Amino acid sequence: MGPRVFVIAVLAAAGLALAGCGEDKQETFRKEFRPLNLRILALGRDVGQAVTGASGKSDRQIEQQFGALAKRTGSLHKDLGELDPPDDLSDDRQDLAEAMGDARTALSDIQRAAGDSDPRAARRATIQLVAASNSLRSERRSLARAAGAKQ
Predict the structure, then answer these.
(1) 24-147, which class in CATH?
(2) What is the tens place of the pLDDT at every residue in 80-109?
(3) Widest Cα–Cα separation across the chain
């Protein structure tokens, strides 16, 4: 076998080996999204508990609790932004990221209202949180369905 044929054969074999080892973008996204999806679900439960339990807490406790939830939401938002979805899920991922950003803002607004002892601002922020949570829930379900994750 001549040197040229040998080089072509080696390159072809290397290409086949690499193609067999890789995952497609869809499957990689699914594997990376599933644990993130579970963390988003846990956050939703924790936010719900914080809202329903807020009436028995001091402003300081509310400020700390909602500040921690806002920080968690920001971390999840960052993790979501680091995922590389296939083209057909890119818009869904962006919609979920926007809803998470809205939820983080509402949580931060509740934190700030509690720190200022401002019940009207807290009420407005809670209404914003409900709207953001509904949007986040819907967008998460849509992406979870498309990614084959828990809905």
Answers:
(1) mainly alpha
(2) 999 999 999 999 999 999 999 999 999 999
(3) 84
